[in-house]
Amino acid sequence: MENYISDAMTIKLDDQLPEYPAFVPGCRRAPRRESQLSEADKALAIRNALRYIPPQHHAQMAEEFARELQEHGRIYGYRFRPQGRIYGRPIDEYKGNCTEAKAFQVMIDNNLDFDVALYPYELVTYGETGQVCQNWMQYRLIKKYLEVMTDQQTLVVMSGHPLGLFHSHKLAPRCIITNGLMVGSFDDQKNFNRAAALGVANYGQMTAGGWMYIGPQGIVHGTFNTLLNAGRLKLGIPADGNLAGRLFVSAGLGGMSGAQGKAAEIAGAVSIIAEVDDSRIDTRFTQGWVSRRTDSLEEALSMAREKLAAREPCAIAYHGNIVDLLEYLYDNNVHVDLMSDQTSCHVPYDGGYCPQGLTFAQRTEMLDRDPAGFRVLVDQSLRHHYEMICKFHQRGTYFFDYGNSFLKAVFDAGVTAVCKNGVNDLDGFVFPSYVEDILGPCLFDFGYGPFRWCCLSRDPADLDKTDAAAAEYILAHNRRYQDYDNYVWVRDAKRNKLVVGTQCRILYQDAMGRMNIALKFNEMVRNGEIGPVMLGRDHHDTGGTDSPFRETSNIKDGSNIMADMATQCFAGNAARGMSLIALHNGGGVGVGKAINGGFGMVLDGSQRVDDILRMSMPWDTMVGVSRRAWARNENALTTAAEYNKLYAGQDHITLPYLAEDEVVEQALRAAEQM
Predict the structure, then answer these.
(1) Which of 2, 263, 352, 447 could pair with 347 as two cysteines, CB 3.0-4.6 Å apart?
(2) How confident is the model at residue 35 (pLDDT cuts 50, 70, 90)?
(3) Contacts of 295 (CB under 8 A, 6+ apart)
């Protein structure tokens, strides 16, 4: 039977085991993951991992896998990590039979670059647990498939496992990815942790598991837009103004949260960002994403006051706990204009939130030694953290949840007062999600979202050319302040040194902007001006994600808890021929709290790609605008109506008739009297 199985495969791991790789000293490593497995479960996890391994090596690898499971709570297959540095090399350096297959390899490796990944040895790109795939055997096997795949085959990847190659056609997706799609009754953190430890579930985050993460630049633009629009809506900042002389306070400098200081600086603000992990501060300081660093509360405040008085932007990293920072600022009567939190509260008990009173090292030790006690401390700290936010709110601070499930974590810690209805989270929370108040009505409802691209040549000159082409398009189609904001963003992108890893850019655009800029890029590839480009977006977007505490928090018709939109977005992109499509459970808010659909599209200069772009780019955006319009969102209604006129005879969106409140209330009163 063993020979039969081996002989039936031509694509498999090599018969000879690779040498065990050396680990770079001091490299950030993931904490031990929770996995409350029975003895039968442990045996199953090892047996599952051995499925990738030729039988003659089972005895040796079973011991290695058992040790990894014991020490790390997961089987990573460290032996199978390639030696040396992994990074997104120029596309021509990869083996492959089609451009798409080589492009995917660039993106995978970029996600595992030491400069990009949070825990590179554990394949975690960002968000504490967001993985490219589960283990290094999967990584190697995916690479082998991509090296032989043709433009008439599709690779299927299920939670990091390459199921195999299947015949399709040139207009079909080259890769279809799903991550962590649990059956409803089991869709919770406990069951997910077990499934992940067994090696059958992968947490793809929003873009890590779809290989489209481009470094924290991706969230810089979103945070920049959020802060700028928060200033306009809540602080009276004019449309052509910025946040000069204003103070923003938050926490987190990891994969996504690392954007906060940089975004605040670009928006003109002074910011103090608390971070307990000094290595993350090292990374952001070296990259120039924070300007100052200190482990002194007094010094942090002194720095902030100096820059506020001068109305100069400055990002200050405070090495310490956010609750300590808030207590200090409150006791010193410091006015904070804007406040948020970007700790990884979608996994607060897995290390995503460090309780007040613990150092980062103590947090890591306690996670391993006493996870139950750690849980108690997290809940205590979250409750006090929330109390401090309420105190600042009473002094005029605008606090918004940045979509990391912070307020949900506070509710889970036992604070029912955080709920609008005072009982449960069905009606949302007393403080708004940034999407609910800001990003939703100001950007998503119009279709503006995180369009992004990677120049696969790794040549900075290619990125410069695409930046210039995008800026030229926006300036020629400057309709509203959102367009001008985005023009300024891409105009200054190089000067702001946003690239981490390979040559990528993010640029918020609406449906027509995304399509026309993509078509221009493909024309540039066709004309030999630039090398191939891979398009994508953060799944955090107008239409890619169903998430009641974040992306769909400003959808008020009750459908915010439905996952139809993300699923339809995913399926529609497949139908129209996007190069890669991905569907994930969880995203940035945690298992069971969101479904995310995303895509990747390789521009090779062909007419085929032009045709796909014209079909797929409007769909990918307008599916979200349509959903928002049907929910009666005002800006989405006008955008959808304009789209119906623009595409008359080709596309058509169903729009709602609007009922007067008095009509509904009168009907209810009449019914009560019956």
Answers:
(1) 352
(2) confident
(3) 318, 319, 320
